[in-house]
Amino acid sequence: MHAGAVLVFDAGPLGLRNGGLDIERVRAYTAAQLAASPRARQRRVALALGRLPAWLDDPFFELASHVRHLALPRPGDERQLKRLASALLSEPLDRDKPPWQLVFVEGLDDDRFALIAKADLALGEGDEGFDPLAALLRATPNAAFVPMPRADTQATPGRVALLRAELARRARELARIEAASDALGSGLRAALNALERAITPRADAPLLGPTGPHRRVEWLALDESDVRSIADRLQSSAHALLLASVAGALRAFLARRGLEADELELRALTPIDAGGESSVFEAPLVALPLAQPDPSARLAALAAAPEPRAPDDEGFALLASLGALHGAAAAARPASLCVMTPSAPPSPRFLLGCALRECVAFAPLLPGHTLGVAITRCAGRTQLGFAADAALVADLPLLADAVAASFDELRRLASGEVHQVRTAADHKAVRNSGAEP
């Protein structure tokens, strides 16, 4: 299982005269950055005893297999990019190679190119974890780098030596009593939550079902300053405002499927980075007020939803953040939907001098879920990325449109243009068309 993202850059210094992309310079730069991350050249293997995973150098590592180059028919538009991203994110990563891939896509209109990135959820774990986006993106537009010679791979040790080394590493992680108690507590909670998910009836629950391997992705961009301005005028948090937009959209989206929105109960996992000395990832369970037709009432019902901590300005570990949030959600109680907020720095980011313009994240679906939402705030935009089972949620673009409409409803509410929903008709104010006064 992997996390994915789509990033859009100005072509800038990587653009060629023929409108293409200097992919050889990109690969040389990537090779230079991988020198500091041994995990980037390693593949994951399961050990026989206890199935403990271990990371081994790939003796046949080939950078071109991980940094690919594609082109859209010029001028490529957003619809074409979404179709390509859906196809690429549906493909599983090769288990016999280091589990990450970067696909650079040239041919976008307005002199832009895209980067479709995906990585195994376990790739960013631990102190030796690797996030390809964090390795490549910088806070300054400086495009200089020092090319590195091809790295030597380590010989593969025997399975007994691997098992001994892995057990020793696990023992060091659990050496502290408090660490052992935390691991035991989280493991027990995860087991109880898994049992609850197994026995919870799902026959009438929306957005749940047996998911297949094919994905469809969609995204929606909102102006970050607009989101914050509306939240301030409504005396709300930006996080609650976005959750209310999603709740209003799901009310309309599920009503189109013939479900009675006023009778729906939908619980959503909202995994967040709760902060602390070391990042603590939690997955609060939030009841989305789909039965409430009034947008102001939906917003008020979500006012107490836990918020993610403000992201720091260091690194760009977006894929690693998605993996950690997914892990927190997978160990949580059962729900119909996951709405996660991965961490991304607010300041501008650059790839070899090319400015990042858009960044959309896609959460891997939890078992039984047919839809997932990821909210990313980056480059002055709030991007909502939707990932769904391609067969069970074939009408995904309608959900993105519904979120935009729900957000506009809250915008009008903030400007005083939306009237409160009446619970009963005011018969004195009703006039029959064409009736005499």
Tell me what the structure shows.
This protein is α+β, with helices and mostly antiparallel strands and 437 residues long. The chain folds into two domains: 2-165, Chloramphenicol Acetyltransferase, CATH 3.30.559; 177-414, Chloramphenicol Acetyltransferase (2-Layer Sandwich). Helices cover 32% and strands 23% of the residues. The strands form four sheets. The chain has a six-stranded mixed beta sheet with strand order 4-5-6-1-14-13, with helices on both faces. Strands 7-16-15-12-8-11 form a six-stranded mixed beta sheet, sandwiched between helices. A two-stranded antiparallel ribbon has the order 2-3. Strand 13 (350-351) and strand 14 (354-362) form a beta hairpin. Helix 7 crosses helix 8 (238-256) and helix 8 (238-256) crosses helix 11 (396-414). The longest helix is centred in the middle third of the chain and has 23 residues, at 177-199. The chain is globular. The model is unreliable at 177-181, 194-204 and 418-437 (pLDDT under 50).
